[in-house]
Amino acid sequence: MFRIDAGTTGKYCDGLSRRSFVQLGVAGMAGVGLADVLRAKAASVTPDRPAKDTSVILLWLDGGPSHLDLYDLKPDAPAEYRGIWRPIRTNVRGIEISELFPRQAKVADKFSIVRSLHHGTGDHFTAGHYMLTGRGGVDGNNTAGKLPSFPSIATKVCGPRREGMPAYVSVPYAASIGLRPGYFGANYLGPQHNSFETSGDPNQPNFSVQDLAMSGGMTLDRLEDRRGLLRHFDTIRRQADASGEMDAMDRFQRQAYELVSGPAARKAFDIDSENAELRERYGRNAWGQSVLLARRLVEAGSTFVTVHFGGWDHHWDLERGMENHLPRVDAAVATLFEDLDDRGLLDQVLVMVCGEFSRTPRMNDGSGMGTPGRDHWGNAMFCVLGGGGVKGGRIVGATDARGEVPVERPVSPGDIHATVYNVLGVDPHVSFLDPSGRPVPAVDRGELITELL
Question: φ, ψ for residue 418 (rounded to 5)?
């Protein structure tokens, strides 16, 4: 077992910092072989499910954004429920969103809002595991991920859309509830199916991805010589290795070599070459530039890109938090839809916006820590979906007058996953063996959201 300390994250509402580790275990690496992947690919391409060239960008609002303050406002509810901001009309008749989203209001025909998503838990960890793997089984006392994330499953089956690009990328890193890679990880599919993390801030001058830069004195010829030497010395160990560990490590080395030696990834990550006016539209901040980088990556051939937007655990000072966060989200999301449309990519790229849960419909008194906020709520939440063949300008489901629970068309995380797999051309019934040898299907009790397809 290899154990690599990946550093310490910031504090969450329980006051604890998380130290995250990457563990490369023999069981995880051996659990799924090449034959399993080939069977999954074959199962995903049938006459009624042809091969696709689609991609996904997931904007992850880590910590839990309030549905009542973003995409499901309740202006007629009592003051302590409806909150501070009013809804505004969009360019789609009958759809209203937060007044802090004026730019998204102009492109609402390009995305749809699921307002009846729910999983019923207010625990950060259980909720994150539900949203990213489709299942529970963890909590604040037992936080280790147990299942592969749906991006890991999707990219294991699909691979990259273009050679020379990583299939699964996280900007700047994969993290859920302070755990890295947390529930974005591949778990027993093997760490080679975790995301490639860019790290750093794409808004900083001369941003670069460290793993794409060769160390001093290293040339491509020397890199190839070293690669051949490693292959030679590994031959005997690989022949004797029945665990699959060496194969997994070889895939790591192969991907690293392809990224460093090929021009595709280096060009895609070169955000400094992007048009200055477009960079301003996305927002000259870490969030806006991370979303622009995500667009560059899917355009170059990555299949699934996640973007981490942290800081949504607003138990107090909700007003200050939203007025800081929402204009940045508005610029990034609206520009992404406009940019994809301008480039002819909107039908090819699905954009998702969500977090692990929502916040309580009734505002608190600030918990003695500041001005009023909202606490944890998993009984009603939102997910924005647009592009990739998903219809825009629609509302799926509805919550009651106070935004407490779904009253129309309840939607589960499994339904979201089944829909995303459909967009990517992945068979939602494909299964992989867990460490005990039990086949686990990609989707647990999920059905397509047919209103969007």
Answer: -60, -40
